[in-house]
Specification:
By secondary structure, the protein is an alpha/beta fold. It has three domains: about 10-55, lambda repressor-like DNA-binding domains (434 Repressor (Amino-terminal Domain), Orthogonal Bundle), CATH 1.10.260.40; about 65-165 and about 310-340, Rossmann fold, CATH 3.40.50; about 165-305, Response regulator (Rossmann fold, 3-Layer(aba) Sandwich). It has helices at about 10-15, 20-25, 35-50, 80-95, 110-120, 135-140, 165-180, 195-210, 225-230, 235-250, 265-275, 310-325; strands spanning about 70-75, 100-105, 125-130, 145-150, 160-165, 185-190, 215-225, 255-260, 285-290, 305, 335, 340-345. The radius of gyration is 24 Å and the shape is elongated.
Length: about 350
């Protein structure tokens, strides 16, 4: 006896010649998007001919009986995200929950596809390891599937959140560098925009400190990275840190300290300085954010801001699990905030004035 193959959303999208997200949005009746009548008719007719049945029309199982959590991350190349994901998986394993990892490379369309798939799969819950771009759709999905977000402080986001305050983290670094006498510094970063608000807030925090002191400056060196570039180049953050530092060194300036937007970029900064024959911290002090495990290595010794990566991951899963099992009400928004502290290593030291100055 043969079992009839279940028609999936992928089958419909393939036969209709449209993307998976387009087929899902049309068949789920998304009100916040619009398609041409021809496309809508094509998708619906294809679904009817193939005999597709939307899982949303099936009788839903209790959330507590489902054991699959989706983890959404920009990438897994940066140890910040890979370490956080592993911490989430550790917590999930303790409760017998399986996990699936999805990467977006900061493309909003990927978020829509993942949220659609979560509903199609009947997922138990979702953890976003970064602030989402598709906020309205995410909040809509959160009404039926518990979602927890790990990201910067944002009281307007109406989902459970494990929060960071990257503005305060930036101020920590700014005070540290200024306290060491580095009155002119460079800030080196990958894309700075609303999609990457965490980076912008770090820069804003550093600038806020320096703006209070006369005869100080923060020179910003940044390069925009597309989702495709991030996908195709695992070491892109290191490369950007290296190349922007080389650009910085070509310019005449009084810069004596360099702040990298995260530790991965900082490693590129350190390599560029070493290649040019500069010593750290004798010639330049360097500081990063995230306190990755590699930053503790003897040959690195990077001064960095502690971001409690593993604790945030485990905390996010525990909040999610309470929602999955009904131990917390879905309309009670939980916001847990972690505070930062600076870990001083060998890459920063007091400013040393040269004879030329």
């Amino acid at each position: 006896m043969t079992t009839k193959k279940r028609i999936t959303l992928e089958d419909v999208s393939r036969s209709a010649g449209v993307s998976l997200s387009t087929a899902s949005m049309i068949l789920n009746g998304r009100s916040d998007v619009s398609f041409s009548p021809t496309t809508v008719q094509n998708v619906r007719h294809t679904a009817e001919v193939l005999g597709y049945r939307s899982p949303a029309k099936h009788k839903a199982r209790p959330l507590s009986s489902r054991k699959l959590v989706l983890i959404v991350s920009p990438n897994i190349g940066n140890a910040y995200y890979s370490n956080m994901i592993q911490a989430i998986q550790q917590a999930a394993e303790q409760h017998g929950v399986s996990t699936l990892i999805f990467t977006t490379y900061r493309a909003s369309g990927k978020e829509d596809e993942i949220l659609d798939m979560a509903m199609d799969m009947g997922a138990s819950g979702i953890v976003f390891t970064m602030m989402p771009q598709s906020v309205l759709f995410l909040e809509k999905v959160n009404r039926s599937i518990p979602i927890v977000v790990i990201g910067d402080r944002n009281t307007s986001l109406n989902v459970d959140t494990v929060e960071l305050d990257n503005y305060s983290a930036g101020m920590l670094v700014g005070r540290h560098m200024l306290g060491l006498g580095h009155r002119h510094i460079a800030f080196i970063s990958t894309t700075l925009n609303n999609v990457n608000a965490m980076r912008v807030r770090r820069l804003d925090g550093v600038r806020a400190v320096y703006s209070q002191e006369p005869d100080t400056s923060v020179q910003v060196f940044t390069r925009d990275i597309t989702p495709l570039e991030e996908l195709n180049d695992i070491g892109i953050e290191h490369r950007v840190g290296y190349e922007l530092t080389m650009e910085c060194l070509k310019r005449p300036s009084r810069i004596s300290g360099i702040v990298a937007v995260n530790d991965s970029v900082a490693y590129g900064v350190l390599d560029a300085l070493a290649e040019k024959g500069f010593l750290v911290p004798e010639d330049y002090s360097v500081c990063g954010f995230d306190n990755l495990s590699a930053s503790h290595l003897w040959n690195v010794g990077l001064t960095s801001v502690e971001h409690h990566i593993e604790e945030k991951g485990r905390n996010a899963f525990h909040i999610l699990y309470e929602r999955m099992t009904g131990d917390s009400a879905p309309n009670n928004i939980t916001r847990v905030e972690f505070t930062h502290h600076l870990l001083e290593n060998r890459s920063t030291a007091p400013f040393r004035q040269t004879e030329e100055e």
